[in-house]
Amino acid sequence: MQKVIVTGGTGYIGSHTVVQLLGEGFEVVIIDNLLNSEASALDGIEKITGQRPLFYQVDLLDYANLQDVLALHKDAVACIHFASLKAVAESMERPLWYYRNNLNGMTNLLEGLRSASVEHVIFSSSASVYGNTTVLPITEALPARNAVSAYGISKQVGEELIDAALVEACFGSAISLRYFNPIGAHSSALIGELPKGRPNNLMPYITQTAAGIRQQLTIFGKDYPTPDGTAVRDYLHVEDVATAHVKALMRLLNGKNEAAHEAFNLGSGNGYSVLEIVQAFERANSIKLNYVFAERRPGDVAELRADASLAVEKLGWTAQRSLEDMVRSAWAWERKARGL
Ligand code: NAD
Ligand code: UFG
Fold first, then answer.
1. What pLDDT, on the 0 to 100 scale, is given for residue 160?
2. Do 89 and 73 share a structural domain?
3. Does 23 share its domain with 41?
4. Do 178 and 327 reside in the same domain of the chain?
5. Same domain as 123, residue 32
6. Residues 138 and 223 in one domain
7. Which CATH number characterizes residue 274's domain?
8. For position 89, what pLDDT does the model report?
9. How much is the mean pLDDT over the chain?
10. Which ligand is nearest to the CA of 219?
11. Which position among 56, 130, 151, 224 bears the catalytic label?
12. Residues β-bridged to residue 303
């Protein structure tokens, strides 16, 4: 059994990836400080897979503790690094916190991997590395040097840290996956997105509004140069995102990578507006959502859409699940998590 270390593994995308790794026969060790997740994600993972991964509640900023954990798992073949703060707007208000958590945490991890002799790394990057581009759809050929938010900059620099760690031979090869907008939940409704506090992202805000936890959804901006005036994003199902990690891991383990550090966009290539998401949610779940329009959110762009053909070609991956799957599974999860 090959062992994989997963940072941020109790989080939203991490937990779905852990389920698939276990399903593929990998042994998984999770490191997470539970800053934005609950240990109960481990129960969900166990119910789905019949296996409970080893879990360490450790902060990546705590270098000594992190080193101790990594030293126990020198036999791991790879590390998938999800752990980070991830809210764009919050990162504009508290940029130093974002830099410290995401970059100091990542530097600690990458240095720690050198002594742990882990060979391969997969990094959760983001479409935010492309900044305010108007070139659509976005290919990897667009320079990943234009991030505008502290969050986006932390991902852009995160990719640079991977290159730096390769120079210092902390590990042998890496893949950065630049996700567009993952939404939805596992088909079992046993794991899903459960952000702490007020959600920043659209889908948890929608499901919490439907559940009555939030009074109404605020749609930020209705004057964008898009067909209905609301901002367009490339939404893809979180289970598809998880699958891409397994494919990326296999590519590294099989030595199929063409460079020491590769980067791939993960998107469906379809753009949906905020209003289209709201309407799809209402239609698929027979629910009427309360919503109001407000000013644009600072830092937001009109439209982001991926060209994911490189991932199709090199990873053999495509986003398979429909928008209906995404909005249905998101609501099924919220209902189950809230006991509704
Ligand atoms: P999440 O918040 O659900 O998961 C991140 C996990 O990392 C959480 O469980 C949190 O507790 C943990 N964490 C944060 N800082 C830590 C630290 N210092 N030490 C240990 N654990 C720490 O977020 P997610 O949506 O699952 O995102 C996973 C990754 O994907 C992140 O790196 C995020 O930036 C990236 N990403 C997410 C999206 C999205 O829309 N969800 C889009 C692009 C990229
Ligand atoms: N939105 C609302 N109301 C809300 C929340 C969001 O109208 O309550 C709108 C936003 O203004 C935006 C769209 O819904 O137009 C999507 O917003 P999200 O916050 O869900 O997602 P973002 O596109 O801002 O950012 C997400 C992740 C980032 C990632 C980025 C890459 O949060 O981590 O996708 O595309 F980098």
1. 98
2. yes
3. yes
4. no
5. yes
6. no
7. 3.90.25.10
8. 84
9. 96
10. 2
11. 151
12. 232
Which residues does 29 contact at the CB level (< 8 Å), separation at least 6?
Answer: 3, 4, 5, 6, 53, 54, 55, 56, 69, 73, 76
For the residues 147-156, what does the mean pLDDT come to? Answer: 93
Find the ligand nearest to 30 CA: 1
Tens digits of residue pLDDT in 253-310: 999 999 999 999 999 999 999 999 999 999 999 999 999 999 998 778 899 999 999 9
Q: Whose CA is nearest to atom 21 of ligand 2?
A: 201
Domain membership flag for residue 189:
no
Q: Give the position, in ligand 2's atom list, of the atom nearest the Cα of 128.
A: 36
Do 169 and 293 fall within a single domain? no
Packing angle of the helix pair 40-49, 12-23 (nearest 10 deg): 30
Cα 97 to middle of ligand 2, angstroms: 20
Instruction: State in Å: Cα 196 to ligand 1 middle.
Output: 12
Q: What is the mean pLDDT of residues 117-145?
A: 93
- Residue of 334, 229, 240 lying closest to 273 (CA atoms): 229
Question: Per the structure block, which two tokens stand in for 182?
Answer: 């993952």
Same domain, 206 and 127: no
Model confidence band, residue 196 (pLDDT cutoffs 50, 70, 90): confident
Q: Phi, psi (5° rounding) for residue 215?
A: -70, -45
CATH code assigned at 48? 3.40.50.720
Q: Looking at the domain assignment, is residue 196 inside a domain? A: no
Same domain for 166 and 155: yes
Is 98 tagged catalytic? no
Backbone angles phi, psi at 184, to 5 degrees: 90, 180
**What is the residue with the minimal CA distance to atom 33 of ligand 2?**
86
Instruction: Give me the number of domains the chain comprises.
Output: 2
List 87's β-bridge partners, or say none: none
Q: Domain limits at 244?
A: 3-183+235-266
**Residue positions counted in the chain:** 340
5-14, 110-119, 168-177, 258-267: least confident range: 110-119
